[in-house]
Amino acid sequence: MAALKGYGLCSMDSALQFPCPKRFNGYKRRSSKWVSPTAAVVPNFHLPMRSLEVKNRTNTDDIKALRVITAIKTPYLPDGRFDLEAYDDLVNIQIQNGAEGVIVGGTTGEGQLMSWDEHIMLIGHTVNCFGGSIKVIGNTGSNCTREAIHATEQGFAVGMHAALHINPYYGKTSIEGLIAHFQSVLHMGPTIIYNVPARTGQDIPPRVIFKLSQSPNLAGVKECVGNKRVEEYTENGVVVWSGNDDECHDSRWDYGATGVISVTSNLVPGLMRKLMFEGRNSSLNSKLLPLMSWLFHEPNPIGLNTALAQLGVSRPVFRLPCAPLPLSKRLEFVKLVKEIGREHFVGEKDVQALDDDDFILIARY
Fold this sequence. Notes:
Helix content: 25-40%
Strand order of the largest sheet: 3-4-5-6-7-8-9-10
Oligomer: single chain
Radius of gyration: 24 Å
């Protein structure tokens, strides 16, 4: 306490003392009482990075209408940098086969293995190259509200059409914290909220979504809990995309989902479009279920990265901790491609099992 002598102290109790503001910079002390942190929260108090021009902005209703959104894979060069040539080919294939949107830097795109500089660069690159042909939805969510705000400002500044936001994971929060977290970014533009408790460790309950749906910028929810939750939302006017490929057919045609945010569409975009646009098709759905099961044998995107390498669409390069599926699973994929038909899959090369030594695992990049 000797070091604070002469600064003036406001006694809160016998055990805790703070410097008194009456001695600093000429400010007068208002009260010696402690003020709740709630009173210090200033909503949307940040530097506006997004232009006020509205002519090029995407209307939330345009996002709500999308039925096939691909969670696009990020391919790599042997040194671990982005392979933008392969990436551009992947996005072009999506556009040619009827996908209407892409999620950039999501879990499938390994946003968790990117620096924020890489993340925003890839969003901007996708907008610049393809923004006129497909909706670009940037994954700018974070378990840190400050990071989510900053990344979303930057994402919209480089032109993304909408943002994808996950709830804070690992360091979980309360219901009030969830609402405050999402409200801190919702005002910036069209937003999809992503609920995947298997990854975050915390469900976003419907009462949070219903509260947030009061914002005109809430485009909808990517929901992974199941079709009963999908139905609860759609019956109350909330747009939903299935986040589970193996449930998306029934979500779309039996439970009112608008469409799917898909991993499988990286491989068979035309068939996934058919599944979402052309009515109930149990036969096609059954044909694709083994592929979907194979893709999620290990945590996504391990299966997808392995499959695209086997198809010759991307280099067999993995950023650790992702590692390729073993040879036995790769041989299963070769068989699946032949059963479904090579012509339905992306790329033009023959599918190969590849040797273990063909794969490059990058720890530092």
